[in-house]
């Protein structure tokens, strides 16, 4: 439950600062997360990105303010983070379906995006396959690239990176390193290797297990630090089954577990096979610590 409390603390901080220049790093820090990892968990749980949530909440408050006060449109626009009445007007019209001026009219209909409140709700029981593994340092061979840590941007960029690696046969090269006895088996992996909050970048990698073979051109060997991992198994066509697995992990498993996810490197494991088959199986590796371990650090 402490993990849920930390998430609510971050949302409360966000709500208290909607009229300020919001730093994703500051919001994430309230929940003891890195900016990118917080954005990812927020999106999984809430069904929208952090940026979308901020925009919708600001436009909700702006609409209420225009309808109930005599504030100038330019003042409301600046208050809620818009540089000009034009950019504010376009965003306002997309969200509310009317212009800022029309919002002042009696009986004007406005849309509202409510404030989030994180709650643990008991629902129908469901089965989740997982195991806990404590592993020493893991070596992987990867192709890596830096991307923006803005989730909305890399939701477009990362699939394009996978497609590029497919077209230029990087995936075939990496598949040659797969081994049945490897920790990940005959599978490719995707992961965020590192995050540079100052530069607002992440280093994302596509790879496979490594066992000392010659390193191909454009590839590098990376080391994953020793960790305790909770490994979850999902079944079904990609990417829907994997997205559903992520949601269940963060909305069902962690809220009632002694473990809390560490901010950092989740590993997505994609075995060989037909990824559109209802029987396709994938894995999600999440580094964890217990609530007790977290309290000792604090």
From TrEMBL:
Coiled coil: none
GO molecular function, one term: sequence-specific DNA binding
Swiss-Prot/TrEMBL keywords: DNA-binding, Transcription, Transcription regulation
Transmembrane region(s): none
Domain annotation HTH araC/xylS-type: ranges: 8-106
Protein name: AraC family transcriptional regulator
Species for this entry: Eisenbergiella massiliensis
């Amino acid at each position: 439950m402490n993990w849920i409390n930390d998430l609510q603390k971050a949302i409360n901080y966000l709500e208290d600062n909607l009229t300020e220049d919001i730093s994703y790093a500051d919001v994430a820090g309230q929940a003891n997360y890195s900016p990118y990892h917080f954005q990812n968990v927020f999106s999984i749980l809430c069904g929208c990105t952090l940026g979308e949530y901020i925009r919708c909440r600001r436009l909700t408050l702006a609409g209420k303010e225009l309808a109930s006060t005599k504030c100038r449109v330019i003042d409301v626009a600046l208050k809620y983070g818009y540089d000009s009445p034009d950019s504010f007007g376009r965003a306002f019209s997309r969200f509310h379906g009317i212009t800022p001026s029309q919002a002042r009219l009696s009986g004007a209909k406005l849309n509202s995006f409510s404030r989030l409140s994180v709650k643990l709700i008991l629902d129908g029981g469901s089965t989740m396959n997982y195991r806990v593994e404590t592993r020493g340092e893991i070596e992987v061979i990867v192709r890596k690239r830096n991307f923006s840590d803005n989730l909305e941007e890399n939701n477009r960029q990362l699939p394009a990176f996978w497609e590029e690696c497919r077209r230029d046969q990087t995936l075939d090269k990496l598949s040659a390193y797969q081994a049945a006895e490897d920790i990940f088996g005959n599978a490719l992996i995707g992961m965020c290797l590192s995050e540079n909050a100052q530069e607002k970048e992440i280093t994302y990698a596509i790879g496979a297990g490594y066992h000392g073979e010659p390193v191909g051109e454009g590839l590098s060997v990376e080391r994953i630090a020793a960790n305790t991992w909770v490994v979850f198994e999902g079944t079904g066509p990609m990417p829907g089954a994997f997205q559903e697995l992520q949601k269940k992990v963060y909305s069902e498993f962690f809220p009632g577990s002694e473990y809390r996810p560490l901010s950092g490197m989740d590993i997505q494991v994609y075995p060989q096979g037909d990824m559109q088959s209802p029987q396709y199986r994938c894995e999600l590796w999440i580094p964890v610590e217990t609530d007790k371990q977290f309290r000792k650090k604090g």
